[in-house]
Amino acid sequence: MRLYPSCMPIFRFSCLAAFLVASSVSADAQAPPESSQKPPQPVDSNLPRAQPPDASDGDTITLRTIVPNIFKDQGRIYWAYPKALAHGHQLLPTIAFVAATGALIAADQYESPYFRRTTTFHRFNTGLSGTNTSLLIAGVPVAAYVVGLIKKDTYAQRTALWTAEAVADSEVTAEVLKLVTRRARPESIRPNGNFGDTWTDSLTVTGGSFPSGHTIAAFSVATVMSRRYGRDHKWVPFVAYGLAATVGFSRVTLSAHNVSDVFVGAGLGYAISRFLVLGHHH
Q1: What are the structural domains, with CATH classification, of the chain?
Q2: Which CA distances in Å does 219 have to 188, 224, 272?
Q3: pLDDT tier at 36, thresholds 50, 70, 90
Q4: 251 CB burial (10 A radius; 0-12, 13-18, 19+)
Q5: I want to staple 248 with a disulfide (CB 3.0 to 4.6 A). Which of 89, 120, 131, 262 is the partner?
Q6: What angle do CA 119, 213, 192 make, to 5 degrees?
């Protein structure tokens, strides 16, 4: 069966969302009840580790602790993670992620021109503009925090704060990568221009395309919500990751990003939120 250019990114985003939902649901289903869990074994404190959805409740998070947490998280990203790689930890998933990214980068020059020229997604793009998706992403933790205050639900309040920390960590990482790569956005390239040579060609220092900031934030929110509520409400991961994948796809149809930009944003948002923000707070 032949997949047309407009179908290929949809297929890839669907596969990515399905994988993340499946991994979240299966991890939650396999997590034993708290009363039956064995005492944790000693592990390297520098290595990020996954926890059940409510494991982060072992730590108290407040508005005052978010900023210090973010600084600590950045140290883990730029120091502890490379150190772990040097000792042979997380090599296979890292290699797989880099290989998939490389393959998608090679394919960008064939897919991005289609979205740069087509008007097929005009109505879709109008509804999911950059402003609208930003409001949607920011609205989730804000709504969770307000509802938590009204209902005196500390679990919801902490979830909102974990989400804010995850988004901040992810966005800092995204901005660093944009500064380093300075990849030109598809929208800045002429429809018949060269989409294969876009690195270090960004019109502004901070306006790079790699990775997608909207996507990394959307998947950060989706991951925290799925991990915190997915065990008791099985529909949460499907809705959360489905919406996040839709946001990512909209960044491609708007020609704001290439497919590889969105893929990397989704992967980093998921990994930072699950293994770093929720993983080390125990």
Answers
A1: 63-277 (1.20.144)
A2: 25, 9, 10
A3: very low
A4: buried
A5: 262
A6: 35
